[in-house]
Specification:
This protein has 288 residues and is α+β, with helices and mostly antiparallel strands. It has helices spanning 41-54, 72-75, 78-83, 96-100, 102-108, 188-199, 222-248, 254-265, 274-287, and strands at residues 4-7, 10-17, 20-27, 32-35, 62-66, 90-92, 131-133, 138-139, 143-147, 156-160, 165-169, 205-212, 216-220. It has nine helices and 13 strands. It binds zinc ion. Zinc ion binds at residues 22, 71, 73-74, 170, 209-210.
């Protein structure tokens, strides 16, 4: 498993994780940055370190480790990278307490739909953050944190000014990943505002945390990135209309609507329905 070159100074490592892949992004240059760290310590040892060494890099070459949000599939490797001596970890202010105690947060987000959530990721171990960043902060004149809540309240994009690349993590969902069923957002109004905000950046490339359906995990070209963001916005309207139609025909059970939504978007029915349920709950708030 190797880092794939997306463009000059931007590399993506697709780490196998839970039936899909989770992206680890290397921003190369005079200073080097890692964004996201896969799901477990084992994934760090098995995939991230060997892939770095293929590029003749080691952890000591990395200036700073950042994350797009604090879900386990993105920060599960943080503890291991800290243990191995990564120089510095920077994160969005809202993510700092969750990185310190990811398991508590992992349990917390399962409480909304306990019967439909997977068991907590008990392997998650917390670590400290060296530098807390606010929305709009820029590291080394290059790495800009763009708060893009919606999927969760601490989801961010990292905008690499040097390469005009937007590292999206899970901030832009479209129809979700192969194992998720449909696009998932816990905060719909924030999600829509975040898509508008991202469009104003005029990024030339976008790299996503997973292959999201139907666009995949790498989008190249300014027009393509703009279309991809407006498509994410359009899909929230498609979802809204679908949920409204379900409600209008008398359907009230969130699980049934969530299952119907997954079928409607052509998604694979997920083993646990909690992410589609969050999405449906948000659209129901607009209706009721
Ligand atoms: Zn993810």
């Amino acid at each position: 498993m190797s880092f794939v070159r997306v463009k000059d100074n931007v590399y993506l490592l697709r780490v196998p994780h839970g039936g899909t892949t989770t992206g680890v992004i290397l921003l190369d240059g005079e200073k080097k940055y890692l964004i996201d760290a896969a799901g477990t310590s084992e994934e760090v040892d098995t995939y991230i370190l060997p892939a770095l060494s293929e590029l003749s890099l080691s952890l000591s070459d990395i200036e700073c480790l950042l994350c797009t949000h604090t879900h386990g599939d993105h920060i599960g490797g943080f503890y291991r990278l800290r243990q191995l001596g990564v120089k510095r970890i920077a994160a969005y202010t809202r993510s700092v307490p969750k990185i310190k105690d990811p398991l508590t947060y992992n349990i917390e987000i399962r409480k909304a739909f306990p019967k439909n959530s997977p068991p907590p990721s008990s392997s998650l171990v917390g670590t400290t953050v060296d530098l807390a960043l606010q929305d709009g902060d820029v590291l080394d004149g290059r790495i800009e944190l763009v708060a893009t809540p919606g999927h969760d309240d601490d989801t961010v994009c990292i905008y690499d000014r040097a390469t005009e690349t937007l590292i999206c993590g899970d901030s832009v969902q479209h129809n979700g990943t192969l194992v998720q069923g449909c696009g998932a957002y816990m905060y719909l109004e924030d999600y829509r505002a975040s898509m508008q905000k991202l469009m104003r950046l005029s990024a030339k490339t976008a790299v996503l945390g997973h292959p999201f359906l139907p666009h995949g995990d790498v989008i190249c070209g300014e027009a393509a990135v703009r279309d991809f963001l407006s498509d994410a916005l359009r899909l929230t309207e498609v979802y809204r209309d679908f949920v409204a139609a379900e409600y209008a025909r008398g359907e009230r059970d969130l699980c049934t609507i969530a299952r119907n939504l997954v079928n409607f978007v052509g998604g694979v029915m997920p083993e646990h329905l909690f992410l589609p349920l969050y999405t449906v709950r948000e659209h129901m708030k607009e209706i009721v």
